[in-house]
Structure formats: structure tokens, C-alpha cells
Amino acid sequence: MEPPGHVRGMLLCHAGPHRLAFHAHEVASIASPSGHAAASARRAFHETEGSARVLVSASGGAVGVDALEIDAEPHRVLPAPPVTVRASGGSLQGFVMARGALWPLVGLADFERFLRGHPGEGA
Predict the structure, then answer these.
(1) pLDDT at 121
(2) If you average pLDDT over every residue of the chain, what do you get?
(3) C-alpha neighbours within 13 Å on the C-beta side of residue 77
(4) Angle at 56 between CA 17 and CA 91, to 5 degrees
(5) CA distance 121 to 55
(6) What is the pLDDT of residues 15-54, one digit of tens each?
(7) Which of the 8 DSSP states describes residue 76?
(8) Helices marked H in the chain — which ranges?
(9) pLDDT of residue 52
(10) Strand 53-57 and strand 27-31: pairing?
(11) How much helix, strand and coil, in percent to the nearest 5, is found in the chain?
(12) Which H/E stretch holds residue 31?
């Protein structure tokens, strides 16, 4: 168990040129986009829809991403400003520094709900 304010086991994902991190334990399976009605993570950035992989939560929600890699190292979670948490529909949990870059850490089910309600292109 990690100390408070730390996370271990994430999926580091790309949505177009943007980065997102998800808790690995929230992902029940990883699938191809065919056969899944997944909301593309690109919607959050007002990018053109698309995805190469789909992260499926235990509740059945799905988010499409372009690329992903597993990161098992422990990382400190940096707090997110309340305004960004509100702007993300409550899905943003903080930020982590991994692989030399800052990654927004989002909850998979909350992010999927946010994307479904997001008025971006193709939504």
C-alpha cells in the first residue's frame, strides 16, 4: 500500500498529443475500438475523434486512447487546483511526474462520464 498522496500502478496514455494517466486497478480490460462504444479521450481536448485502444472499467464504461504504457513505479500525486477539478467534471484527481513529464491523473469512470457529457467535436 502506498502512503497517502502517492500512486503505484498507472496506465500512461496519449490522446493525440495530450497525456493522461489512469489508475491501473480501475481498468478491467483493454480492448480494440471495434465493438466498443467508447468515448474518445480526444474529446476533452477538442481534438478529432479516434482511438487505437479502449480502456474498459469494471462498470462497463469505456474510454478510447491512442497509445498506452504501463508504469508500475510509485509516484507522488500533486494536487490539482479546484477550478481544474470542476472543469473536468470532477474526474481530475491530481498530477503525477512520470517519464520526465507531468501527467493529469484522472479516474476512469468519472472521466468517461465527463466525456459523454462534453460538447466537443463528434460528441
Answers:
(1) 40
(2) 90
(3) 21
(4) 60
(5) 21
(6) 999 999 999 999 999 999 887 789 999 999 999 988 999 9
(7) E
(8) 82-87, 108-117
(9) 92
(10) antiparallel
(11) 20, 45, 35
(12) strand 27-31
Residue bearing cell 481544474: 84
> Please, which residues have CB within 8 angstroms of residue 3's CB and are 6 or more apart in sequence?
none
Contacts of 93 (CB under 8 A, 6+ apart): 77, 80, 105, 106, 107
Distance between CA 108 and CA 105 in Å, rounded? 9
- 117 Cβ contact partners less than 8 Å away, ≥ 6 residues apart: 89
- Report the predicted TM-score, pTM, of the whole model to 2 decimal places: 0.88
- Helix (H/G/I), strand (E/B), else coil: 116: helix
52 by DSSP, 3-state: which? coil
In whole angstroms, give the CA distance from residue 61 to residue 108: 8
* Distance in angstroms (rounded) separating the CA atoms of residues 3 and 116: 33
